[in-house]
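Need a sequence for this fold. Nothing fancy.
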């Protein structure tokens, strides 16, 4: 690509599921092998940005029986630093998995390994300081927000007294409520602790019968989604960032899960955020790749997929190719033009649960004829999902231009 002075690469969800955690236990929790095949590919990027969808709560807070609540060894962050990942978004539905103290400790660990972060904060003062950094001759602001903090799992409901901890998109007391009246009634009657216990029992029963606990769902607009105090704060944040930055990039956590097509809520968010000044919106949470399109003249990536989720994890739904993700590349030129491209990545997991993330072109090169056919078919589906273009002449390449 021509006339490029800065290259920023955005990655999908950086996670540490139980299969990977158990596999790393035999290697003294060394996670560097996860990144060994993409590390060289990242060398051409001036800045690598990921979604840190876990927390580092420390060994003392480890609860191996906890349902869908992450707690990752500090060495995982060390592996991110070794792979040259310099900035992560920390506002997501797992950011309170180990409570407020776990949230704060995670930021301390990221600081220890010199990884910048945006989206969760230790206090109001940190929340008020919009994250801005200099990359060569450009001043960039990165703002991060989430639709949920899994309050039904953690029992922690943020409100106006403590909502500075997390960049929010909606009121958390209603983030898990939908239009199912029976469900809403039960949510009001049954306490948080009892709900978590019921979910844990149901999860184990369904797994025993080989029934997936998770199901693909599309995000819909609910009451309070389109107008609330948090969206007003986001508008003010964007306006303030634009006064001091050349580009304002929003890192958003929202959507359904394992759904290849976004729903109404995310469509609304992309329109809202770009109308109020975001120069690009990079979204994650669905765990599968979704479309990347132009919205109001700005790039909007609905989901980059999960960078390194464990394909063997109990909650994975395999229909929409969750083992694939894309690395989105943003080129900021000296003449203030912006170009985009993307690379396709694939997660390879061995029988012990070890993971290596591969650039698709390198994996294709080492594969046999039958494997190449499968990789071509799956990669072409990812290409079509990202671009909306079905290309019968699709070729496995290092990067594909966008928009």
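Here you go.
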């Amino acid at each position: 690509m021509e006339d490029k002075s800065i290259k920023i690469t955005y990655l999908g969800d950086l996670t540490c599921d139980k299969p990977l955690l158990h596999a790393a236990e035999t290697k003294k929790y060394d996670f560097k092998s996860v990144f060994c095949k993409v590390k060289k590919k990242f060398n051409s990027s001036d800045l690598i940005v990921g979604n840190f969808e876990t927390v580092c709560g420390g060994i003392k807070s480890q609860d191996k029986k906890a349902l869908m609540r992450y707690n990752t060894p500090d060495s995982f962050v060390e592996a991110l630093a070794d792979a040259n990942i310099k900035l992560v978004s920390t506002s997501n539905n797992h950011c309170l998995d180990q409570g407020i103290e776990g949230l704060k400790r995670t930021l301390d660990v990221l600081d220890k390994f010199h990884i910048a972060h945006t989206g969760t904060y230790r206090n109001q003062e940190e929340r008020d300081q919009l994250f801005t950094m200099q990359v060569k001759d450009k001043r960039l602001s990165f703002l991060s927000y989430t639709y949920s903090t899994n309050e039904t799992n953690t029992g922690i409901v943020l409100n106006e007294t403590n909502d500075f901890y997390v960049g929010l998109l909606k009121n958390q007391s209603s983030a898990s409520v939908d239009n199912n009246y029976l469900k809403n009634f039960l949510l009001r009657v049954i306490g948080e602790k009892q709900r978590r216990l019921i979910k844990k029992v149901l999860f184990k029963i369904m797994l025993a019968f080989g029934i997936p606990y998770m199901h693909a769902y599309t995000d819909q607009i609910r009451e309070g989604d389109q107008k609330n105090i948090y969206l007003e704060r986001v508008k003010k944040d964007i306006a303030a960032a634009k006064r001091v930055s050349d580009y304002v990039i929003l890192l958003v956590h929202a959507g359904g899960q394992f759904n290849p097509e976004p729903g109404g809520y995310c469509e609304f968010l992309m329109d809202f955020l770009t109308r109020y000044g975001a120069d690009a919106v990079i979204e994650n949470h669905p765990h599968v790749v979704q479309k990347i399109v132009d919205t109001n003249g700005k790039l909007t990536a609905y989901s980059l997929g999960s960078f390194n989720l464990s394909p063997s994890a109990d909650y994975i739904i395999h229909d929409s190719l969750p083992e694939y993700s894309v690395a989105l590349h943003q080129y900021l030129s000296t003449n203030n033009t912006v170009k985009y491209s993307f690379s396709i990545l694939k997660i390879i997991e061995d029988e012990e649960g070890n993971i290596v993330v591969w650039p698709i072109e390198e994996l294709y090169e080492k594969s046999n004829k039958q494997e190449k056919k499968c990789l071509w078919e799956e990669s072409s589906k990812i290409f079509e999902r990202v671009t909306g273009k079905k290309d019968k002449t699709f070729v496995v390449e290092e990067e594909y231009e966008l928009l």
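For context: The CA atoms of residues 170 and 229 lie 8 Å apart.
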